Amino acid sequence: MTVNVTLVLLPFSAEIVTFVFNLIWSSCRYRGFILVLTFLFYTAYHLSRKPISIVKSELHRNCSTAIRPADLNITNNATWCDWQPFDQDNYQTLFGVLDNSFLVAYAIGMFFSGIFGERVSLRYYLSFGMVMSGVFTCLFGLGFYLNIHTLWYYASIQILNGLMQTTGWPAVVACVGNWFGKGKRGFIMGVWNSHTSVGNILGSLIAGVFVSSSWGMSFIVPGLIIASTGVLCFFFLIESQSQEPHGHHPIRVNTHNSGIYTESQEVEEDHSKAISFLGALRIPGVVEFSLCLLFAKLVSYTFLYWLPLYISNIAHFDAKQAGDMSTLFDVGGILGGILAGLASDYTGGRATTCWVMLILAAPMLFLYNYIGQSSLGMLLLCGGLVNGPYALITTAVSADLGTHECLRGNSRALSTVTAIIDGTGSIGAALGPLFAGLISHSGWNNVFYMLISADVLACLLLSRLVYKEIRGWCGHIPRARGFKEI
Description:
Blueprint: H1 2-49, H2 51-59, H3 91-119, H4 122-145, H5 151-165, H6 168-179, H7 185-192, H8 195-210, H9 217-236, E1 251-256, E2 259-264, H10 277-281, H11 286-314, H12 319-347, H13 350-371, H14 376-402, H15 414-439, H16 444-461, H17 463-473
Helix pairs in contact: 1-4, 1-6, 1-8, 1-9, 2-8, 2-11, 2-12, 3-5, 3-15, 4-5, 4-6, 4-9, 6-15, 7-12, 7-14, 8-9, 8-12, 11-12, 11-14, 11-15, 11-16, 12-13, 12-14, 13-14, 13-16, 14-15, 15-16
């Protein structure tokens, strides 16, 4: 009798094992696909932001070293090679206007972007944002070919582009958060977040190819690339596991007296109510990490927008050389993001990992400004220590907080939480380049003092969370991965 039962159950057991194997393989395959796809999307976003920092040193040059065309009727020997209106003595202020036109619009729009992202299809939202970002990036470059010399044109383009760029971050983090659990989230998102630095590197290299000959193409080529990825998103993005192609849904195995059978089960859609803005602010840790990111992003974006010009002025490199050298900061950022993710996964201390890297970044910035302007190694270290905490907060921390246990399984908070954290950080991203433009008149040393002060303030804002994590490690409170007890 026992042998007969075994023979009856064996085919069903084999079928279940085969189905489970196929299910796991399918899930891993789609997770990898989404990871690569969203990586490409946000690489394109950052790729299209970078050209302005490379082109600055071409819009206002040292004309005494430039070769003057023989047929050129010169009225001013000092500014004949500059692009109006950036040929004036206050050109750094005008560059600050361009930077902040983008960044202020980005910061304001980010707070609303997450709310929209929770309520509309992420696929449509991302596709629209990338295509429109491509359009406005190309329009900036067309100013070269249309011979446009009015500041309001370029500033207006920057404002509109900043609003369109807000569609990216909350949506891609929500997509990745929908596909990956918390177990190795720090490492996975640390690797994945290298798209920021990869985009900056590619944007610098592409802009550098055209900057000395036709700087308009430094914008048009990245604009076409991000618009193309928008089309790719429309056709291929799968927002969550519930949208996997038919035939790859999880199964339910039922056991009855009459035998064993498998039954396909459609994944139920999440009909939970989207979280409010104030509700997201009440999640433990959101306010502290948001304010910390404000100062961390102030430092990162000051480097993003001003590092090539700093290298050009201090090390006396031309625009292309300065742009190429600045990519080392982003290479360091890739390594720093991965290291931060690994350390926070291993220790369970997201706040402590950020705190340690920020503390180390302050003296490294001081040393780089005084002795390491041409040091490749110091630039790599600065990139890793500055961008590591920034990468961790905007990825794994945001995903952890957006799926916090106090939400009781509500999966529609991730985009809003991400938008609040990154939106607050974007205020710092707007202030950093603005202050750099104003302070640089009195010397680059003062700019670096500002950056060091911002790092110290970011550390102070994380003090409470670091204290809680250390108490957990010492056994005073239960240790938890992520933010279950914060």
